[in-house]
Design the sequence.
């Protein structure tokens, strides 16, 4: 996901204006359909590409991200058409994230062949750079494969038919990343019967999913499909049986309000929601409050109530960035072997409180907080640019 030129992120939700993380809509690689969408503020929709080989769980399910990983997958951005003058800063953020994760587990970085040398130099020898899987951008959470396990040593992958967030950004290479990673790893690959992105769906690993209607029940991804049809396809792909839906925010960022910038699952029956300041009344803040209200009154697939932890967001007046589209999502953290990789934004009190909350929630892991402001200005975060491969 991206928004460049006026970059915007794949999954953020701070107070912002107009389109974001896809603010890049005005910049690069816009298809005619995407341009039409931008022109009407997200109310026009392009047709989704045809689906093939629907995925059925068949005993496989996407596990919670706290399980042990074999590696983390990432992608090296090199498009100045997408990122403009922000490219160097975003590359530095990607390298920092990769090097930090590599202290805890292997990292595989997909890069265009012309950028392999630069990616290797920036990321260091601890990160494996792969030049045979070309990419358009860095949002591996959305373009990459979703890995599933079956509890008996089996591993397979599902592609979510990535279409550039509803054809809002060029994605010829990224549309093939999921299948190419599956082929590279020698893992079976199938295709989900809906169009979506990894950042749009959260799973508790025990049958429950959560998502926003705005990002999935959306004519630019799934024209002609009803909510029940999409729900069935999501459950089949993720090995789940229930979806908790939030309304979301339509047309304000390229992702149409990905859930992973606001709400996450910590464990079966346990969730987390990043909350705004009491005085914040923008659409993203109201959306967060609605997500908290819905999740805290929901039950999981097993029928048990979901307990919800509040993660306090920062004061946008105290963070380093003055970009109106900045995404300051502590909730967009990434869990890897032995660590939680999270952002910090310059509001020292909120940064420290978020770190303490995450440390309490993940007591056996080291919490590393990174300055990833260039990514935040592009509308995304650490979870957005990573994809875990679980141990079978």
Sequence:
């Amino acid at each position: 996901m991206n928004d460049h030129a006026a970059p915007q992120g794949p999954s953020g939700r701070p107070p912002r204006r107009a389109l974001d993380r896809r603010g890049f809509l005005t910049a690069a690689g816009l298809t005619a359909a995407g341009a039409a969408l931008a022109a009407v503020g997200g109310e026009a929709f392009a047709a989704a590409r045809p689906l093939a080989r629907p995925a059925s769980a068949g005993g496989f399910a996407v596990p919670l991200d706290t399980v042990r990983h074999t590696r983390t997958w990432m992608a090296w951005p090199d498009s100045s058409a997408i990122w403009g003058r922000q490219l160097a800063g975003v590359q530095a953020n990607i390298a920092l994230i990769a090097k930090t994760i590599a202290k805890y587990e292997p990292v595989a970085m997909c890069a265009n062949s012309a950028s392999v040398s630069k990616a290797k130099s920036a990321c260091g020898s601890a990160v494996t750079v792969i030049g045979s899987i070309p990419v358009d951008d860095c949002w591996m959470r959305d373009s990459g494969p979703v890995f599933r396990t079956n509890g008996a040593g089996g591993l397979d992958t599902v592609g979510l038919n990535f279409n550039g967030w509803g054809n809002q950004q060029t994605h010829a290479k990224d549309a093939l990343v999921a299948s190419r990673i599956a082929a590279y790893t020698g893992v079976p690959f199938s295709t989900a019967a809906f169009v979506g992105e990894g950042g749009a769906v959260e799973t508790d690993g025990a049958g429950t999913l959560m998502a926003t209607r705005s990002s999935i029940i959306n004519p630019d991804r799934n024209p002609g499909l009803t909510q029940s049809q999409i729900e069935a396809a999501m459950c089949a792909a993720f090995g789940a049986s229930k979806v908790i839906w939030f309304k979301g925010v339509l047309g304000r960022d390229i992702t149409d309000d990905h859930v992973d910038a606001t709400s996450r699952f910590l464990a079966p029956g346990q969730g987390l929601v990043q909350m705004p300041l009491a005085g914040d009344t923008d659409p993203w803040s109201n959306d967060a409050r609605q997500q908290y209200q819905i999740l805290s009154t929901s039950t999981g697939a097993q029928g048990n109530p979901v307990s919800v932890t509040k993660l306090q967001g920062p004061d946008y007046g105290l963070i380093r960035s003055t970009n109106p589209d900045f995404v300051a999502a502590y909730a967009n953290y990434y869990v890897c072997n032995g660590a939680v990789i999270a952002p910090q934004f310059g509001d020292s009190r909120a940064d420290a409180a978020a770190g303490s909350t995450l440390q309490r929630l993940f007591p056996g892991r080291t919490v590393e907080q990174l300055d990833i402001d260039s990514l935040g200005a592009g509308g995304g975060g650490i979870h957005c640019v990573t994809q875990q491969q679980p141990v079978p």
Remarks:
- The first helix runs from residue 32 to 39.
